[in-house]
Amino acid sequence: MKSTMQPYQLTVTSLMHHGARLFGGTSEVITWRGDKARHATYAEVAERAARLANALCLMGVKPGDRVATLAWNNQEHLEAYLAIPCMGAVLHTLNLRLTPQQLVHIVNDAKDKVIIVDGSLVPLLAAIREHVPTVEHVIVFGEGDTGKLGDHVTYDDVIAAQPSTYDWPEIEEDSAAAMCYTTGTTGDPKGVVYSHRAIWLHCFGVWGAFRLDERERLLVIVPMFHVNAWGIPYVAWMLGCTLLLPDRFLQPEPLCAFITAERPTFTGGVPTIFTGMLQYAQANNADLSSIKRAICGGSAVPRALIEAFRDKLDIELIQAWGMTETSPIGCIATPPPGVPVEEEMDWRSKTGRAVPGVDLRIVGDDGGELPWDGRSVGELEARGPWITGSYYGVEAPERFHDGWLRTGDVGVIDSRGYLQITDRSKDVIKSGGEWISSVELENHLAAHPAVAEAAVVGVADAKWEERPLAAVVLRPGAEAGPEDLRNFLDGKVARWWLPERWTFVTELPKTSVGKQDKKVIRQLYTDGKLDVQEVGKAAR
Ligand code: ADP
């Protein structure tokens, strides 16, 4: 028997109309300019999005064509987020931190027809322009030196010449709305294509999981070039939250100045950004008091960071898990009701529970599902309406298993459904046939008062096959040696987990989205480029 419900299509267009109609005159989009903010109402942004759609249409953009953006988090980027999917084209956000070779690869792979570029990023595009022949038009917004760019038009000029309304087409919910390439932490970038339906449902999932409403002033630190900024711009727009966009001012000092001036209530970012913000805020007495909650993910969030946010800044830092392939929100770590306050942190420092709509399972080496007992370690697999079932243009059968996405993350799930990621399959340390969790070691190290940041990677060992190497960045002025840190870990983890190899560095290598780049740390070690101190022996 069929239902009596309408075949209403779940599209970004419906979200756009909802935000513009209900909050057009009241909610704002605020972009930071380094010293002051630029304000626009939702109505102004929606009108400019309609003008942009008209301009793109005139340039020959047809349904299904890819229109790329190379931009920071700002108003024009949001206009592109609305105009491109709603006109039936596909928004392709280019990760501006990829290497020029990777950028050339992904623009050609996606066959982008138009690129909308931030003035400050023109040199990056100019350097690859002649290698991306599918690109027919370049639109530049904001200030920038366009001398070496070749043919281009100016955003404000082209949209000013266009009508202020657009005849938005009817769109099938399963058609492509946006695409994003993985950052290639564990291989070549691969394209993931989000449907209108996936974005729509993901918005509803995030709305519920983050408990947002129009009173929030939402600071989007996560780059809009990475997984649609975790879907936050769309969910904010749908709910009428005021959106605060930091543009390229992501260093702690200007970011804190933006926060003090425009008073966000909620934000989201990777742990490295929040670690920097915390250090700066403490050293400079920055006023971050408007922020009540922040979502943190993209890599494991150290317990010490969640505690410091609570104790020093009075901010609830909430861990979440996700990946480009999962739109990205998959899990969120809020404690279950009724746990004593002193146990809350144990739950918050886990990876989290699946948000409704996402199915998770842990699978053993033999492909069989493992029990949710908090002990059985295996690869995490995921499925759901906003989880990719393939990659764009490449066969990758090894990444899928009976319709589930193989995440490449390794961990356990307990009887209440709380996931704990212990590693990535490429990062796991297998010592004498047993797993050592780099995430757990890093977590404990981050809690040492002298440690600003720590990464643990597996390196080859003649006797044990692999042993952990700890790479540590000390806080300015702080002192601690390998023995101090080894002693500090002793008793917190199994003795045979204690690293013998230690290296102290001023900075850890980071990926294009600010995560620790363990591939590079391992390579530096293999190439003998790290100054490694050895203490103790592997005990078994
Ligand atoms: P890339 O895979 O190229 O780093 P993504 O942004 O898609 O780019 O990263 C997804 C990965 O980030 C996950 O597979 C996982 O390894 C890691 N990750 C994200 N959130 C968490 C978290 N809360 N805890 C541990 N790892 C996380």
UniProtKB/TrEMBL annotation:
Q: Which UniProt keywords apply?
A: Ligase, Membrane, Transmembrane, Transmembrane helix
**One Pfam family in the UniProt entry:** AMP-binding
Lineage, top-rank taxon, reads Bacteria
Care to name a GO molecular-function term for this sequence?
A: ligase activity, forming carbon-sulfur bonds
- Belongs to which family? Belongs to the ATP-dependent AMP-binding enzyme family.
Q: Which residues form the AMP-binding enzyme C-terminal domain?
A: 440-515
Which residue numbers delimit the AMP-dependent synthetase/ligase domain? Answer: 32-392
The record lists the membrane-crossing segments as: 218-239
Q: By what name is this protein known?
A: Long-chain fatty acid--CoA ligase
Keyword Transmembrane in the entry? The reply is yes
**Classification via InterPro entries:** AMP-bd_C, AMP-bd_C_sf, AMP-binding_CS, AMP-dep_synth/lig_dom, ANL_N_sf, ATP-dep_AMP-bd_enzyme
